[in-house]
Amino acid sequence: MNKEQELLRKKSPVQIKNRKAAFEYFFIEELTAGIVLTGTEIKSIRLGKASLVDTYCTIINGELWVKGMSISPYFYGSYNNHEMKRDRKLLLTRREIARLASATKQTGYTIVPTLVWIDEKGHAKMDIALCKGKKAFDKRQTLKEKEDRREMDRAMKIYK
Question: Is the pTM of this model over 0.70?
Fold first, then answer.
């Protein structure tokens, strides 16, 4: 990921994060993919009405799909409003999909969505990560490091 992409992500008005992912998994590789959406889905995402809780990605027939992503129905949508939890296709190159497919065949590896954001053209993008699951002691270590960082921040605020 280059610095220009990171700046675009930070400027995005919508940032829907999967906060549990960093706690549950080690990120091996991160990619950005486009999402195939209908009209009312993109409008709901622009309002921030989406959730990445319990989502995962799978490869079916050489295509990458996100499962379990929840996008609330658009309030002003009429009879042609979208389903809340349908499978949505992600757009990556064949080479990237093939690399992810070979990596997920190994035990313990999975593909998890980490962030949904809107780029400067108004398109919805999803950051996905190839992940390896953490064990219980790894999770405890993560919590300890997080607590230590908080303590250090508190100490720095006192001395300022």
Answer: yes
